[in-house]
Amino acid sequence: MAGEGIKVGIFICHCGGNISNVVDCRAVREEARKWPNVVVAREEEYLCSKPAQDNIVKAIEKHGLNRVVVACCTPRMHLPTFQAVLERAGLNPYLLEFVNIREHCSWVHGPKPSEEATRKAIWLVRAGYERALKLKPLEEISEKCSQDVLVIGGGIAGMMASLELANTGYHVFLVERYPSIGGHMAKLTKVFPTIDCAQCILTPRMAEVGRHPNITILANAEVKAVSGYPGRYRVKIFLKPRGVDIEACRGCGACVRVCPVEVPHEFEEYRGMRKAIYIPFRQAVPYAAVVDFENCTRCGKCVEVCPANAIDLNDQGKELEVEVGAIIVATGYELYDARKLEEYGYGIYEDVVTMMELERLTNLFGPTGGYVKRFSDGEEVKKIAIVLCAGSRDRHRHVPYCSRVCCMYSIKQAVLLREQFDIDVWIFYTDIRAAGRGYEELYWRAEEAGVKFIRGKVAEVWRNRDGKLVVRAEDTLTGRVLEEPFDMVALATPMVAPKGLDELAKMLGLALGPDGFVVEKHPKLNPVDTLKTGIYVCGCATGPKDIRDTVSDALAAAAKAAEFVGKGVVKTSPEKAYVLEDTCDGCGKCIEICPVGAIELVSASEGKVASINPFTCTGCGACVPECPREAIEFANYTREQIIAALRG
Q: What does the pLDDT read at residue 595?
C-alpha cells in the first residue's frame, strides 16, 4: 500500500514524436491516473521546455505534490533540469524519479506505433512510481576545502594555468620535473603559423611565473604520493637534490667555468655539451645552477669559487607535503625515439637528426651558434630532406595516430631554412594536414619559397661513397622511385606520452588511453575534466596539440579548478554508498573492491567498521553487493526501493 500523505505527480513527455510516435502516451497517462496517491498525470510535448517546467512547478504548488515522476529521455541529459524544477517549487530535488521511456522503450521498439512499446512504457512508469513512493529527501553533502591548487608540469600549459589561477587570487604549487620551467617551447626558435619569435612569447611568461607571489615553483621535483579526496588532496612531493641553494645562487656562472667535467646537454637534444654543474639555459626560471650528481666527480672546485656559498655537494633532496583543493595535470609530451626507425639510420649516421635537433641548429645559442652544419664534418648544409610521419600513422610497427603538429612545424622550419639560410629543402609527406587559421597560408608560403613537396613514404636512408645521405622514396604522384642525395635528413617524429605518466595516473586514479595519454571525461563536453572529481588535465597530457590549443586547454582547466575551489566549499551528491554501522563487522571486503579507495576501517564502539568518504566515492555501487552482511546501502537506491521498482 502506498505511504500515507504521499502525493505523486506523473509527467509524460512526447519528445517531439520521439516517444509519442511509438508509445501511446495517452494510454500511459490514463493508466497512471488509476494508481493510488497519483494526484496529477499529464502529458507534455516537450517536458524539458520552459513552459512545461513551469507547469510542473504550478502542479507541485497547487496539489502539494511531494513525489514527482518524469517519463521522458535519459537522466544523463535532463536530471539536473528537473531537479532544479523541484527546487524552484520548494520540493527536495531527490524526491524525483526519472523514467527513461525514450532510449529504453520508444527507440528500441520504433519507429512505428507499437502496443508492445506502450505496455512496456506503462511497466517502466509503474516501476518508477513504486520506487518514488520509497524515496527519501536527501541533502547535498558539503565540506570546507583548500583553495590552493597543484599544477603538475611547468611547460606552456602548466605555466598558463598557474598564471590564470594566481592572477585570480589562488595560490598555486607548480611542480616541474626538470630544473627549470619552460618545457619544450623553451627550445624553439620560431612558432607557426606566424613564425614569431618563440622566446619573445614564452620568456615574459616564465619571468611572470617566477616572480608571482601566488605561485610557488617546485622545480627539479616529482610527485611521489597522492592521498585524500576532492577539496583536500594531500600530495607528497620530492625535491630532487639540486646541489645549489636557488635563493642564494646569483647565477654568475663562476662554478660552471671551473667545472672540469663535460657531458652532452639534454637541452640541446644531446648535440651540444654542458658541465656537470650548469645553468639549464639562458632564460631558465629559477635562474640558478644545478649539479648533475650522476656525472659530478665531487672535486669541489665549484664550491671553492662560489661567491655566495650556495653549493652543497652533500644535498640529499627533501620531501614536502602540501594540501590542495584541486590538481591540474599538464605533463606534456616526449618525442618518439627515432632510434626505433632503423630504416632511416638515426643513431647510425650523425647527419640524420630529429626535427627538434634541427630546431636547435637554427638557434643562435644552439650547439652550432645558429649555423646549420653537418655533425659529421662541420660542413654547411646546402640540401636537406624532411621526412614527415616518421613513426606516426603506422598501425603495425610504431605509433598509429597522427601527431597533429608535425606537418606545420616542419613547414615552418622549411620556410626558415629557405628564407634565412637559402637551403634546398625537400619534404617527403604522406598527407599535408594544415587545419587551422593561418596554416594553409604558411603552406603556400613554403611553396612560394621553393620548398619541394614529394608525396610518398621514405623507404630507407643510407650514406653513399661521397658522404651524402641518400633517401629512397616513392613519389606517388608520378609513380617514380627516387634516390636523392642530401647533406642532412630530419625526421618529424610524433609526440608520445611522457615517461612516468602511467605511474602518476595510478597515484591520481586517472585512466589512460591505448595511446598512453590521459583520458578526459568527455572529448567534446568535458575536454579538461577527468573521471576524478577535482582533477583536471590540459595540453598534451591528453594527446598531441599545438601551442594555441594547449594554451586554450590550460585556461579552461584553470577556470574549472577555480570554479571547484572558489567558494572554499566542495559539494557532492548525497546519492552515494553508506555503511550501516550496527550491521558492519569490519571484514574489509568492501575496501578490496572499491576502485577509488573511498573506504577505510575506523574505530567504533564495538571494534572496527567501514567508513565511506562521500567526496571520494564515485557512486559505482560495487561495494553494495560485495558486503556479505548487507551492511552497505546506497542512498535513494536502497534494496527496499529497488525491490519496490521490481514489484511494480
A: 86
